[in-house]
Design brief:
It contains nine helices and 21 strands. The chain has helices at residues 16-29, 43-49, 55-80, 88-99, 208-220, 228-238, 278-288, 421-433, 469-478; strands spanning 110-117, 122-123, 136-138, 144-147, 151-152, 158-165, 179-182, 189-195, 242-249, 256-263, 301-305, 308-319, 344-349, 352-356, 370-374, 379-382, 385-392, 395-400, 414-416, 484-490, 506-517. Helix 7 links the parallel strand 10 (256-263) and strand 11 (301-305). The radius of gyration is 31 Å and the shape is globular. The two termini are 43 Å apart. The model has no long low-confidence stretch (mean pLDDT 94).
Length: 518
Amino acid sequence: MANPPDREFAVFQRGEIRDLALSLFRNALRSQVNPDTGITFTEEEIAVATAPGTKKWIEADADDVIGMIEQQRALWLADQVRVDRAGSSWLLGYHARMWGETVLDATGGGGECDADAAPGTVFIGLTTLPDPAANYATDPAGLRYQVLYDVTAPISGTATLELAGIDTGTGTNLAEGTVLTWANPPPGAQPTLTVSTAFNGGTNAETNVEFARRLAARIRHKPAGGNVAHFRAWARESSNAVEDAFVYACGLHAGSVVVCVTSKRQTSIGPEARIASPAVLTAVRAYLVPPGSPVVPEHVHVLVVPPVPQASNVLLNLAMAKGRTSGWTDRVPWPTYSGTVSSITHVTTQVSFRIHSDSALPAGVTAPALMIWNAGTSRFESLAVQSVSSFGGGQYTVTLSQQPATEVAVDGYVSPDTERRDQIAESVEVYFDERGPGEIIDLNNDKRSHRAFRFPKPFEEWPQLAGSGIATALQDALGVALASADLISMSVTSPSLPSDPVLGPSMITLGKLAVYAL
């Protein structure tokens, strides 16, 4: 009889009830006399009487099927009373109504853009979306983006603007370099502007999984009377772009609340995709900061901040098959690690540069398979290596037959290539996406530490530390393709404290990544 740890009642597998019924019948026959022979039934006779296909076996199997049907109903009902397992009808029609929650609407992405204009040109921005008085632009798909704050073009003629999506959906998470066209440009502005930092915060309507996670957090920590759970719930319901909120009661002084919000990654790329954009912060501040807040009392001091990203560079040893598509591309992966990371030391052109290696080129190898780390996208890119030659002193000249999309720059990390490059990068990205922000004060020495610690607590949700667990996460993700993994080093494992709580907490993000054959 199987009894999974998440069930409060016994769960039977197919055939268990049948086998139990036949076992009881066999035991009963052992004490009975065979009327044809006048002696007790033999084991052979009992086995024949209860063999598959016999009348008793068919009766017991039918009982087993009926039991399985009834059990399935019980399992289904048991799932529906749990928020994290309920189907749509129960989640929205029962749990949501019970707790007075509704699914959040889609949101628009936001970020920075560079706009060329005559010095002194004033771009008009407003935080109410949409507002016909504000300047707005459209992307190649026709989606609209509004300027959030007034900006005057400087002497350089390039103004940095904060834009937020009037239209919504993941399609508003624009990539860096996307060109927008002004719909109502101010006099003196050029007709187009360019995305300078990738947009994030654009989401579709809240999914059942996201809604269930938010509802479960509310049930676990009851919001009431403006407690920390209340501020967390308010922040999360202010915008569907909010991944989670971290609350520091009395973080500045008595009567103050510091709220740090992270953004949902969605389709956004890069290590800072979870750093809340100005558009997300504007929505949360409008909902939480008095006197305009519809939920927070007038005299509460609320500060809404994003986490401060703190990049951590990671070196890993991975034991994978060599010379196969399931592992390392080369039979003898190069470079290797013996104390110094293999990084770019000199750039002549984008197709000719030097790297450092602790080991010499394998005998007979002139064009090893290499890949370079793109810190902007948190992905590896395979290099079209034409040749590698020794420059002396552990330096090697790499010549490519094709320029990579990733910029070749000094201190860039180079690793031996593998077909698992994307899977490795995504797994490491997910590991860092599971980290939350740190503290804003020194809990060991500050008198406010009994109140101003982070909520939710790091040992309950969103751990703030990073470390050897990354090797376990990789093994779970790659399965049998990865025999073992060792963390060589991680430059940042604990987020630092800010010099002032108003700056917001630090949060570890993925910096540069290099992997080597173990």
